């Protein structure tokens, strides 16, 4: 879970407005005019995400984030900042904000729909996985974050859960999502403690002013996990975890790292460097031989990495199954409507629809798996 500090003091907003977005004239179309809201895809503390179909482009699906103004009261600045950031960013590896709407009680963000699932889930499902695969993933992330930094935006909460595949295709690109904690450098000095334990940079924990380098540290942590399946820093106690991070204490444990190239280890050390002045920038990281050259090994490490990912990053997957089914079912209905609009469903199709409903109503129970050991080493 992200830990939230107080908003940056030097940029506290003195004005609170009911209208969070710049509104057009009253004749402007509403969300309901352009989109038909469908299945629930997910929920958050202040919002829910619904699948939506365009009313002007039949079959075109989107994700709509619906924010309750009442629940958001007192945190309007956070939403305004997220919208401002998303409007600035246009990159093929960043989930795009397409439109915004507002009524008396809610704010609606129409987002690009990504359907390929989370990073770790896809790796576990693969039959083969190599250093080269990990390097290709990190190259995409680095290119997107480098662009973000050029635009003066710091993400501040890069983690595997925020890296999503665009679609189920084998060669799908990776997408960066969730800009709720992002900050623009021109909005003032960043000193607020925010982010997710385990991925947060030392300078944040040290309560020092910080900048773009915090994202590079987080990319280093993700790269480490991609090559072994467990985190570089771990402890049941946040105090002990933070002490490890402040010192930059991590190891390349045997046997998990025995087959990993020296180039990969060097790449990680350059990113997870406590000294901000010596830490690589995204641009420098993109030039590292492990990313830009042929230094990444092509040996299959899937068995070891996937085993550790399942042990150390297990979560309840029934909700993911529910979310995926909502999208798949809607796509199926759209295909049926376009190819067989005048005929009734065959008995076989009726059975498929029934199976979908059963999965939605009775999701599989989450499995119990072993958690990581308290000292931060791999769970065995």
UniProtKB/TrEMBL annotation:
Residues 35-291 form the Protein kinase domain. It catalyses: L-seryl-[protein] + ATP = O-phospho-L-seryl-[protein] + ADP + H(+); L-threonyl-[protein] + ATP = O-phospho-L-threonyl-[protein] + ADP + H(+). It is an enzyme of class 2 (transferase). Residues 339-354 have a biased composition (Polar residues). GO terms for cellular component: cytoplasm. Residues 355-364 have a biased composition (Basic and acidic residues). The keyword Ribosomal protein does not apply. One of its GO terms (biological process) is signal transduction. Residues 1-30, 339-380 are annotated as: Disordered. GO terms for molecular function: ATP binding; calcium/calmodulin-dependent protein kinase activity; calmodulin binding. Its EC number is 2.7.11.17. Gene3D superfamilies: Phosphorylase Kinase, domain 1, Transferase(Phosphotransferase) domain 1. Keywords: Allosteric enzyme, ATP-binding, Calmodulin-binding, Kinase, Nucleotide-binding, Serine/threonine-protein kinase, Transferase. Transmembrane segments: none annotated. Coiled coil: none annotated. It comes from the Eukaryota. The keyword Ligase does not apply. Pfam families: Pkinase (PF00069). InterPro entries: Kinase-like_dom_sf, Prot_kinase_dom, Protein_kinase_ATP_BS, Ser/Thr_kinase_AS. ATP binds at residue 73. Belongs to the protein kinase superfamily. CAMK Ser/Thr protein kinase family. CaMK subfamily. PANTHER family: SERINE/THREONINE-PROTEIN KINASE. This is Calcium/calmodulin-dependent protein kinase type 1. The lineage of its organism: Eukaryota, Metazoa, Ecdysozoa, Arthropoda, Crustacea.
